[in-house]
């Protein structure tokens, strides 16, 4: 018999729990009931108790403090009785290995379910201690089987039969964790996360498969004939995120796969979970469910060469601070497409590599090994699981390069400065390479070749980019007509201005103005 103790300062509640629950049918015996936490601890000093059912609010020592002291000294499991208004307080008790929370006015229906689940935990832990196996695995190593299945797709019919794996449906969660407060957040994190999952994933089985310190895979299974489905699992994980935000000082992002009815398809579910996780672009805790369809209005193509050129121009423009925002904007658009995480990684690698290589071309006299920087950035990109992390890596690369380059004596040589000064002064006129060379009294072939070698752009491209930049200012800050703006920045033909504007911004002048 499982030995149960009831702790509540209200005698009517204690009596109701004792007499309205069929404890013998549950395989339990209520061995003691009392009105305070201190009395409960005094009883446990000389008596064995397997499960403690306690109210959360009691005088002198509340249920949370009682849970803490039990977790420090005894192997007993604790079930908390709470009210809806106490839920935020109840969540704090998770760190003390609380098994479940029961709302008081629903205890007749809910408490037997929680008792059964807690008994299962006790039995498994006892089997673990006796057999010496890892916690929760029993005689069948689910973690090992799932890990191999997810990574390789390999599983035998014998394993499916032995683990009864064909009796369940599955949803897979890919979990990326960033620690904000390592001193607090890293303390017993796996145990805390396991407690939250155990309480939140009601009527489900789950395993935690660590891939790295910050990346976990969580297969969740439930009986095929149950009422649980994908929507239920998503609701559970939304609650998990709320609980994590309450007291765990970590940033956690979850990618959820679609429902899998055949365990052999778990490898596909893992790919879905990874892709869902990758599409998260926001800071803080977040959850995203896999969808195979791009969002309405999403871009269908991504011109990485044009986009990289724009970012290069912004990164190495001393007077401009738009590069990080432009990078974030582009990758947030990518998140709404069917682009895979591997493709996003490749795009970011190309962009960061181009920025670093352009810095190298300036031959800056700085104490920086750019090869080492590129290697470090490459490793970070390869390990990134979300677009949010990719954006962070890209923005950090831009900021590091600008900090090394901006203001340095040889950041731009004299020729580049003179060409760009001429563009700034004369962009409203019929400006071209020959005009600039005449102003500088230099050979146009030399200027063209040298400027492109030093900047990566032709003089004509730079003129167009500068004019487009001025046009953006007028579109945002004035009510001038499109053709008036075209003339004001040096374009005599409005349709040609529109084509050039779209080339460098991806939008028409009208769409750009409406988006401001």
UniProtKB/TrEMBL annotation:
Keywords: Coiled coil, Cytoplasm, DNA-binding, Phosphoprotein, Transcription, Transcription regulation, Two-component regulatory system. The keyword DNA-binding applies. The keyword Repeat does not apply. GO terms for cellular component: cytoplasm. Pfam families: HTH_18 (PF12833), Response_reg (PF00072). It is found in: Cytoplasm. GO terms for molecular function: DNA-binding transcription factor activity; sequence-specific DNA binding. One of its GO terms (biological process) is phosphorelay signal transduction system. Residues 3-119 form the Response regulatory domain. CDD domains: REC_YesN-like (cd17536). Residues 256-283 form a coiled coil. Residues 417-515 form the HTH araC/xylS-type domain. The modification 4-aspartylphosphate is found at residue 55. May play the central regulatory role in sporulation. It may be an element of the effector pathway responsible for the activation of sporulation genes in response to nutritional stress. Spo0A may act in concert with spo0H (a sigma factor) to control the expression of some genes that are critical to the sporulation process. This is Stage 0 sporulation protein A homolog. It comes from Anaerocolumna chitinilytica.
């Amino acid at each position: 018999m499982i030995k149960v103790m009831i702790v509540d300062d209200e005698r009517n509640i204690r009596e109701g729990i004792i007499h309205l629950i069929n404890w013998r049918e549950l395989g339990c015996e209520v061995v003691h009931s009392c009105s305070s936490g201190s009395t409960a601890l005094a009883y446990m000093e000389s008596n064995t108790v397997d499960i403690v059912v306690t109210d959360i609010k009691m005088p002198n020592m509340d249920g949370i403090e009682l849970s803490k002291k039990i977790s420090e000294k005894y192997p007993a499991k604790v079930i908390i009785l709470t009210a809806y208004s106490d839920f935020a307080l109840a969540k704090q008790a998770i760190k003390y290995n609380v098994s479940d929370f029961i709302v008081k006015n629903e205890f007749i229906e809910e408490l037997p379910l929680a008792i059964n689940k807690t008994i299962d935990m006790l039995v498994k832990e006892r089997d673990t201690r006796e057999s010496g196996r890892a916690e929760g695995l029993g005689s069948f190593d689910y973690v090992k089987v799932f890990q191999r299945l997810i990574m390789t797709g390999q599983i035998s019919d014998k394993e499916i039969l032995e683990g009864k794996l064909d009796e369940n449906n599955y949803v897979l969660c890919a979990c990326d964790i960033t620690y904000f407060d390592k001193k607090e957040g890293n303390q017993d994190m796996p145990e805390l996360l396991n407690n939250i999952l155990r309480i939140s994933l009601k009527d489900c089985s789950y395993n935690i498969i660590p891939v790295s310190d910050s990346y976990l895979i969580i297969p969740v299974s439930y009986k095929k004939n149950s009422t649980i489905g994908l929507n239920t699992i998503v609701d559970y994980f939304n609650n998990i995120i709320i609980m994590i935000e309450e007291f765990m000082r970590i940033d956690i992002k979850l990618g959820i796969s679609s429902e899998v009815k055949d365990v052999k398809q778990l490898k596909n579910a893992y790919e879905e979970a990874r892709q869902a996780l990758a599409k998260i672009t926001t800071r803080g805790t977040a959850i995203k469910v896999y969808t195979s369809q791009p969002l309405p209005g999403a871009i269908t193509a991504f011109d990485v060469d044009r986009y990289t050129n724009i970012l290069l121009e912004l990164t190495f423009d001393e007077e401009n601070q738009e590069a990080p925002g432009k990078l974030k904007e582009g990758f947030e658009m990518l998140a709404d497409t069917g682009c895979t995480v591997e493709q996003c990684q490749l795009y970011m690698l190309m962009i960061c590599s181009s920025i670093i290589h352009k810095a190298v071309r300036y031959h800056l006299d700085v104490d920086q090994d750019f090869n080492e920087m590129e290697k470090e950035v490459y490793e970070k990109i390869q390990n990134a699981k979300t677009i949010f992390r990719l954006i962070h890596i890209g923005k950090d690369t831009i900021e590091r390069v600008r900090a090394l380059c901006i203001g340095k004596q040889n950041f731009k040589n004299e020729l580049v400065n003179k060409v760009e000064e001429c563009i700034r002064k004369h962009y409203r006129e019929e400006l071209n390479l020959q005009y600039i060379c005449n102003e500088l009294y230099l050979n146009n072939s030399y200027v063209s070749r040298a400027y492109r070698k030093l900047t990566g752009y032709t003089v004509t491209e730079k003129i167009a980019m500068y004019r487009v930049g001025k046009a953006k200012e007028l579109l945002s800050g004035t009510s001038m007509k499109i053709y008036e703006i075209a003339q004001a920045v040096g374009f005599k033909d409005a349709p040609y201005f529109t084509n050039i504007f779209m080339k460098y911004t991806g939008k028409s002048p009208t769409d750009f103005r409406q988006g401001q």
